Amino acid sequence: MAILICSIVDGIVQEIKEGTIVIAEKDITAVGYDIENPNGLEDENKKNKTIEKYRHINSCYFSDHTIVPLRFGNIVEDEDEVRNFLNKTYIQLKTLIEKVKGKVEVVVQVKFDLKKAIEEIAKHVDMSDKIAAGKAFYDLSEKHKVGVYRALKKEVSTLVADYVETSKVNETLIINHSYLVEKENEELFENAINNIAEKSDDVLAFHYIGPMPSYSFVPFEFSKGLFALINSARLLLGLNEKCTIKDVKTNYRMLSRKYHPDINSGGKEKFKEINEAYHIVSAYCNTKKAGECSFAKEVIESSFVNLQNNRM
Question: CA 100 to CA 173: how far, in whole Å?
């Protein structure tokens, strides 16, 4: 018997149904369920059923709580291992919770209709000339891809907190984006996507998936130590070894203005890094009762020990 952990929930929650496991530490809860034979996941049918249950549990808690869904396959032996995990990664988990609080993930896929594209190309190109036909198909695909990119940037950029472009694209799936959207903006976002779809050529098919838990926006570094994580974030924000939460906010605002993509066209990745660093440092400093926050290694490590020893 083992436990498959589905997600981390902000707050203390109860079991949603028989078989669900909830393990709380401080003000967060790991939710999951028992699986009899972890090796059985090698069977495709059993794996698919397990994934379906994993997603169902996440969806149930997601409807009323902020959750950080863990990647499928996080299997532990017992509850003590889960508690140890929650304590060791408390700061990181609270950082991710703050990042996705009040937000949902939606996926926008744009598919290039192969049959309609060929019919359009055939009007102008000799289809027996495979080189010419292939080039025409590629050019048409790129033309539509660029057009959709521009429309998305114009229509939805102000409605999203973050987005990622997945690498799972091909000659027919030309756009595959995941967006992190405030819940209050989700209807406006969907309307904007529908508006783009209506104005697009019928050779394109738009697919809107969601809202759902923020699967694409909670990267988690299990191997990175707490001091290394917090200290690198502190250095990125240009903070001294001792500072106040006001200093954190001041430096963050200054850097976010400097690297905001609307101002600095080459600052997109840096802007994301700064936001991540701010969430990490804020989560750490908010655990301190005093007005001043110290980033000395011994202080961070002692905080880590306190997190382990102060169970609810």
Answer: 27
